[in-house]
Amino acid sequence: MKSTIDNTVEFVKEKLEGAEAGHDWYHIERVWKLAGKIAETEECNREVVELSALLHDIADPKFHNGDETIAPKISREFLEKQNVSHEVIEQVLFVIENISFKNRSNAPQNPSAELMIVQDADRIDAIGAIGIARTFNFGGFKNNPMYDPEIKPNLGMSKEEYKKSNGTTINHFYEKLLLLKDLMNTESGRKLAEERHEYMLNFLDQFYKEWNVD
Prior knowledge:
By secondary structure, the chain is mainly alpha-helical. The protein has helices spanning 4-15, 25-39, 46-55, 70-81, 86-98, 113-124, 128-142, 159-164, 169-175, 187-211.
């Protein structure tokens, strides 16, 4: 008999078939595995961590006209059909509703251990070599400029400005990716983020060298 986790994996794979490559099943799988790794070092409800990691991007608002209500609705309906307890469902939805970088100014005062773990895992997958690949893939998907020396990073964007931003892909490093290392919640997350952060700095150095041909 299949477990709830097995059923969730199947559901997410089916739901995200054909999704933009930076937010597809493989992104979910990496976050799920990273969250499991971090969870080994933290006191937490492992079921909540795994379900939250698997469902966190089931309907990313950036692909649904900014609507942040779709993912919690889909997740609730699915989990109820799986006869998951009310308490676990509410904890999973809490993670899904609070995980996003753009919502950090409205972050809950008392984040759960499960939110901190899955948020770290999601942010770690946004940096390093994978993060660079995802960033350029999404920039291409949106047809954003790769780089324009005349367009400076916007470091003070509101949530609404961030959601509507069509800036350059290189600026996204400064507007989000390079900030993530210092936003990690867990010690394990910080350690995993360190190497990836350095990799991005080296990449940017090389990028500018190649761009600014003498």
